[in-house]
Design goal:
- The protein is mostly helical.
- It has two domains: 33 residues; 51 residues.
- 95% of the residues lie in helices and 0% in strands.
- The chain contains two helices and no strands.
- It is elongated.
- 0% of the residues are buried.
């Protein structure tokens, strides 16, 4: 009984390692296949893309706040004009 449990645990652990081995091998191959310049180019592309989307999002938020502020300002002006008449 105890040997069966040990064999089951061992085979399960081995299966887990074996199932991940191709992914680890592919990752190592990809990492080893690029030079430092190529990695820096990839990182630069990633950061450029992230910066673009971050700036786009922040600009949308800024424009939304500006529109809300302009609408509040229009409401204040219209109230002040109606009160002055």
């Amino acid at each position: 009984m105890k040997n069966d449990l040990v064999e089951h645990v061992t085979s399960t652990a081995a299966q887990a390692v074996i199932s991940k081995a191709p992914y680890v091998g592919a990752t190592v191959t990809i990492i080893g296949g690029y030079s430092l310049n190529e990695w820096l180019a990839i990182v630069g592309i990633i950061f450029t893309t992230l910066t673009f989307f971050l700036n786009w999002h922040m600009q949308r938020q800024r424009l939304k706040l500006m529109r809300e502020e302009a609408e509040k300002q229009r409401e204040r002006w219209s109230e002040s004009e109606s009160n002055s008449e």
